[in-house]
Amino acid sequence: MDIHEYQAKELLTKFGVPIPRGGLAYSPEQATYRASELGGAVVVKAQIHSGARGKAGGVKLCRNEREIEEAAESMLGRKLVTHQTGPAGKLVSRLYIEEATNIDREIYLGFVMDRASERIVVVASAAGGMDIEEISATQPDTIIRVTVDPAVGMQQFQARELAFGLGVDPEIVNKLVPAIMGCYRAFRDLDAMMVEINPLVITKEKQVLALDAKMSFDENALFRRPHIAELRDKSQEDPRETYASDRGLSYVGLDGDIGCIVNGAGLAMATLDMIKLAGGEPANFLDIGGGASPERVTKSFRAVLRDKNVRAILVNVFAGINRCDWVAKGVVDAVKELNITMPIVVRLAGTNVEEGRRIIDTSGLTVISADTLAEAAKKAVEAAKKAA
Questions:
Q1: Active-site residue set
Q2: Rg of the chain, C-alpha, whole Å
Q3: What are the tens digits of pLDDT across the range 113-153?
Q4: With a cut of 50, which residues of the chain have pLDDT below it?
Q5: What is the 3-state secondary structure (H, E, C) of the chain?
Q6: How many angstroms separate the CA atoms of 41 and 67, rounded?
Q7: What is the Cα–Cα distance from 274 to 282, expressed in whole angstroms?
Q8: Which residues, including other chains, have CB under 8 Å from residue 142's CB and lie 6 or more apart?
Q9: Would you state the pLDDT for residue 131?
Q10: How do strand 143-148 and strand 95-99 relate by DSSP bridges?
Q11: Domain identity same for 275 and 344
Q12: So what's the pLDDT on residue 130?
C-alpha cells in the first residue's frame, strides 16, 4: 500500500527524520493561507501516488500569492501524468505547501526489501534529485549499497560509513546519521516495503532535511498497523483493484481483454503466460484462493466484469483444498445472476472434477469446456477475438 508524501513525512518525523515545515491544502484559498503561515517562498506540491512529479509540472516554486494561486489552480482537480502513472494519470485532490529550502547538496536514500538475500538493503547516492533513475542506469558505480543483518539490525557504524561514502563534510555526518537511522527504524517498525527520500538535502545553513518522501507498506501486515491502514487513499488506486480488495479478492488489473478467474497465485501466473503464448492479452490477475465458495466465485465474476475491456472470461481451477463442484456451482450462479452473455471458458481439474463438469454440462448454459490449460488459453483467445 502506498501513501502520500505528506503522510510519509508525518510518519518519518516521529522517528527523528528532519523535514521542512509545511501544510495541506484542498483549494487555492487554503494554499495561500498555508503559505502565509509559513512566510517567504514556498513550494506547491501535487499529492499523488507517483514519483517524477517535478518533471510533470506537479512541483512548483512560488514567491508570491498570485503564483501560489495559479499553481494551485493548475493542479487541483486535474490528472497529473508522469512516466510512473501511465497515460491515464492520477487525480490531484490535495496539495502540500512547503517552505522553500536553500539547497546546497541533494542525496538519494532508499530502503527496500531484497527478496533474493531476504535482507533490508539501503541504497544511497551522492547524486540525488530528479535524475536519479538516469544516473543509476548510466553510472551504477555511484550507487552505494549496504545490507542489514536482521539479527542485529542496522548499526550506527553502518550509517556513518554510508554518510562518509556519500562524501559529506565531517560536520554533517553527525546530522545525517540520525536521519538514516530514523528511516531504518520507520521501515522496520511500520512493516514498510520501501522508504525513499529523494532528495535528502544538505542546506547552505548546514541542515539535513527530507525534501521528498515515499513509503510503501506490506498489505499483509496492515491488520496490526491500523493507523497505517487508515492512510489509504482509494482515489489513487485502480478502481478495479479497490473493488476486489474490499471484497477480499487478490486482484491486479492489466490492459488485456481476457478476464481470468484462477485459484492459486502460481497457477494464475501460469494462466497469464499461456494466454500470452496463445496470442492473447490477459485483463487481470485474480486468485480466488483456497476453499472458494460459490458466493466467492460470483464475487470474482463481478470484479472481472467491472473491466469494460473484457470480452471473454477464462476460469482455471486445479482443486486441492478447493472443490470443482463448488466452483462449477459458482460459475452457473454467476452467469444466471449477472446475465453474462460473453464467452466463458472453464477448465476444471482435481477434487470432485466429475461432479463439477456434470453441473456445468447440465446447466443449459453455453460454457466452453477445456481439459488442459493450453487448450483453455487457446479457446479463450479465439473467443475474445470473435467477440471483438
A1: 108, 196
A2: 25
A3: 998 889 999 999 988 776 666 776 777 777 899 999 999 99
A4: none
A5: CECCHHHHHHHHHCCCCCCCCEEEECCHHHHHHHHHHHCCCEEEEECCCCCCCCCCCCEEEECCHHHHHHHHHHHCCCEECCCCCCCCCEECCCEEEEECCCEEEEEEEEEEEECCCCEEEEEEECCCCCCHHHHHHHCHHHEEEEEECCCCCCCHHHHHHHHHHCCCCHHHHHHHHHHHHHHHHHHHHCCEEEEEEEEEEEECCCCEEECCCEEEECHHHHHHCHHHHCCCCHHHCCHHHHHHHHCCCEEEECCCCEEEEECCHHHHHHHHHHHHHCCCCECEEEECCCCCCHHHHHHHHHHHHCCCCCCEEEEEEEECCCCHHHHHHHHHHHHHHHCCCCCEEEEEEECCHHHHHHHHHCCCCCCEEECCHHHHHHHHHHHHHHHC
A6: 10
A7: 10
A8: 125, 126, 127, 135, 136
A9: 66
A10: unpaired
A11: yes
A12: 62
Residues 57 and 173 in one domain: no
27: CATH:
3.30.1490.20
Give the length of the chain.
Answer: 388
Round to whole Å and give the CA distance between 344 and 331.
9
Q: Domain range for residue 260?
A: 239-387
Residues 279 and 341 in one domain: yes
Residue 128 has what pLDDT? Answer: 77
Confidence at residue 245, expressed as pLDDT on a 0 to 100 scale = 86
pLDDT at 143: 87
Backbone angles phi, psi at 16, to 5 degrees: 85, 15
Domain finish residue from 99, 125, 152: 99
Give the whole-angstrom CA distance, residue 141 versus residue 162. 14
For residues 375 and 256, state if they share a domain: yes
What pLDDT score does 127 carry? 82
Query: Per residue in 290-316, is it b (16+ CB within 10 Å) or e — as a string?
Result: eebebebbbbbbbbbebbeebbbbbbb
* Domain final residue, candidates 47, 68, 99: 99
Residue 288 and residue 263 in contact, taking contact as beta carbons nearer than 8 Å = yes
